[in-house]
Design goal:
Blueprint (H helix, E strand, L loop, with lengths): L2 E4 L5 E3 L2 H26 L8 H35 L2 E5 L11 H25 L2 E5 L18 H4 L4 E3 L6 E3 H27 L1
Parallel strand pairs: 3-4
Antiparallel strand pairs: 1-2, 5-6
Helix pairs in contact: 1-2, 2-3
This protein binds zinc ion.
Length: 201
């Protein structure tokens, strides 16, 4: 995944390339750890007594920690910036499943990151008096034309990155258009909940 997040105003938050390098390194060192485990087993040495295995295990743990720290810094930086610059933040509640099926490891990391990112957005929004609106996964954010509302299923079926709306002829970047739809939907949800509250009061 090249991009971490794309906002409706076109702002793109890219994933740190250095981070991907670290992930590759982690995978390599973990394979090495498995090999050392196998060697110890073949020699009938307990893992707790295998110096080579223990040394490698510490190495893997250090890379894990480095990745976690980098991830945290990044998530904090992005969430603070978004919350400070916007009053209403609409987020899609389930993007994880749409993400490319990566190696298990990367996927696990992205899932943790997304839920952590949402958590940060929500509590920072609270601090700054901003509003986070969750838009349900049933909302077809990528397929709807943000200009005329036409639903274009090819976007999903053909995995189009860019498309021209057959309804109104506007040309879209898939992610920016999805962001604009999310924004509109978040505003709609917010407006209807406000009306509800006023109605009660
Ligand atoms: Zn259209």
């Amino acid at each position: 995944m090249k991009n971490f997040a794309i906002l409706s105003d076109g702002t793109v938050y890219k994933n740190d390339r250095h981070f991907r390098t670290l992930e590759k390194k982690l995978a390599r060192e973990q394979r090495k750890l498995s090999r050392r485990q196998l060697i110890a087993m073949n020699k009938k040495i307990k893992l707790s007594e295998s110096k080579n295995y223990q040394k490698q295990k510490r190495k893997v743990a250090r890379i894990h920690e480095k990745i976690a720290n980098k991830r945290n810094d990044f998530l904090h930086k992005v969430s603070t910036e978004i919350v400070k610059n916007h009053d209403v933040i609409g987020i899609e509640t389930l993007q994880v499943k749409n993400m490319r099926q990566n190696r298990k490891l990367s996927k696990a990391i992205s899932e943790v990151s997304w839920s952590e990112f949402f958590r940060l957005l929500e509590y920072k929004a609270d601090w700054y008096g901003k509003t986070v609106v969750k838009v349900g996964k049933a909302f077809a954010s990528s397929q709807l034309c943000s200009s005329c509302g036409h639903q274009h299923k090819d976007v999903k079926h053909l995995g189009l990155r860019e498309w021209t709306c057959p309804g109104c002829g506007v040309h879209h970047d898939r992610d920016v258009n999805a962001g604009l739809n999310l924004k509109q939907e978040a505003e709609r949800i917010l407006a209807s909940s406000t009306v509800g509250t006023t109605g009660l009061a």
